[in-house]
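Run folding on both entries below.
>entry_1
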Amino acid sequence: MAAGGPSAVQKTNNRPWYHTMLDTKPTLSSKIKACLAGACARLFPGTGRAHGCSWPVALLVTLLTLTVSVHAAEPVTVTLYNTGDIHENTANLSRVAHFVRQRRETDPNVLFLDAGDVYNKGEIALMATRGEAINAIMQAAGYDARIFGNHGHSFGTVRLIELVDRFEVPLLAANAIWPEGVVPRNAPPYRVFKLQGVRVGVVGTFAEARNHRCDDLLKVKRVHEAVAPLLPKLRQEADIIVLVTHVGTRRDKQIAAALATDGPGSGVDVIIGGHDHAAFSEPVIEPKSDTLIQHSGSVAKCVGEVVLHWDGQRITDRRVRLINMTETMAKDTRVEAVRDYYREAISETESVAQIDGRLSREQLSVWAAQQILRVSESEVVLLPPQLVLRAIPPGDVNAVALLRDLPRLGVLTFTVADEAGLRQLLKTLWKKKPTLMTYGYERSGRQGAIRVAYPCVAYDKTGDTQIAALESGGATDIARLADISLWQIALQAARRDAQILLPVAAF
């Protein structure tokens, strides 16, 4: 649990919290009653336990019970702050963290949640750490819980588990089916937070779709199928139930309706969502379930706020708003310190090398193919036309230009039985990518299996469609390598030889 955040309550109470105040076990209230009864027995003979409880005792006990009941029914306000789709853009996240930390100083009933997709597309120095930097920053920001979105598998299951257990912010993963023997310690399906008498259960889920299939070790259930069996137990442990998803607004509405099997109030009370980068400044209510749905946009341009009023038995009022992060807002010093530590590793604007002549898209594609052959240990690369976005002009080259022109790739590797199988595979794939070209294979009449690499540009709809095409083309042993960052390979090449960025002589 992050410093300053509410603590988790043990999941042992099977009744509403206010019932425990009136239990017959030796709680504080029952001890007080016993003392009063003893005092009355001495003050008023004949009112002891053997003769029953006379009117003075009854009166005092009644007054005490009313006092406890009034305290139990005291209204409580719970505030949920939320972000989503940060994508390693952390300048605004520093402001969000400062804003939430200030709110915690005056209001203890605050939870800070993230709805997934913290990886990819953002600051280069952070992306180069393969998830370490953004996880460290989120820990410094003081999140209470988070989930992973469709970009959560960018570095493979083993790296995902390593990062989850290395950092304190719990990953909630109710619909994850972890590989045997490697279940993370810090990834429960839900957590229950106790906030001044009201218990808030937060259930987290993985995105149902994945942009990067680096491996198939981690399986994911449909959200409603995984959450529905948890609700009866969770309803006994929590007064308010919050579900965190990364499936988009339309799917959130479907899930809310599917979970409300017994009508409004039987499902979840709130869904904090992401994926479609929507931002709701007004309440969005799914009518069948009466579930409030809230999204806060992307890259922490604003933080979402959900305010719930609890009267001791039910939610009586719900309010939402978006708080925009502006340049005049203060930044969190803890987050800034962690950001600076990682950002010093790679300067985004400093020149890493200099090239004499313009490098065309074709030249860059050939260079990229060389790197893919080397990293994937393949014999042939199938290059899609959008592998390189644009040419690089002569002069200084910085990391921003590299990321823009040399995208992150997910690489499918597979084998075909022989050269005839390769020709059949090309015919199959050409139907989907007419300008697909091969690189690296010498048609020398060789015999035997051929290892092939097929780069899929990140953020495309990759995965099952490509695999189906490969299988229909006669490919076997299909696997997904961890993403190959061509810009990162180029940076490493530049550091080895500061005079040249790319092997221009090879063109």
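>entry_2
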Amino acid sequence: MKSATVRELKAELQERSPKEILDLCLRLSRFKKENKELLTYLLFESGDEQGYIESVKQEIDAKFELVNLKSPYFIKKSIRAILNYTKKYIRYSQSKETELELLIYFCQKLNTFKPSIHRNRKVETLYYRLVEECKKKTRLLHEDLQYDYFRELEDL
């Protein structure tokens, strides 16, 4: 089955009644966990962006505490999983400030991680790539915000 384009979906949804749209959303939320998480963000957490950021930061902290330290391979794998988790929640928000704040926080946690990431070349490369990505994204923001975020990036 070929999926419809966003334009076709939008046109079709405009023709539906609110009850039908509600039923479609509920049915969609049953199929994938990510759909349910996105609906949860849109309905309950999008109004309090700072609270959302804090809850994601707490989850990142919890995941860093559970990193498997048995070998560099497991450390790298766990860190990549935490980064994927972080980027998933960044996608839900679609806010550049939220994206930068969470990525900078992830980099800070990675920089203070024990054992040091600077002993593992692949994790160190991942870290430096993320810092460069943050710098590029910071340049797209308003000048006042750029100054604040560049100060945070200098500490890294």
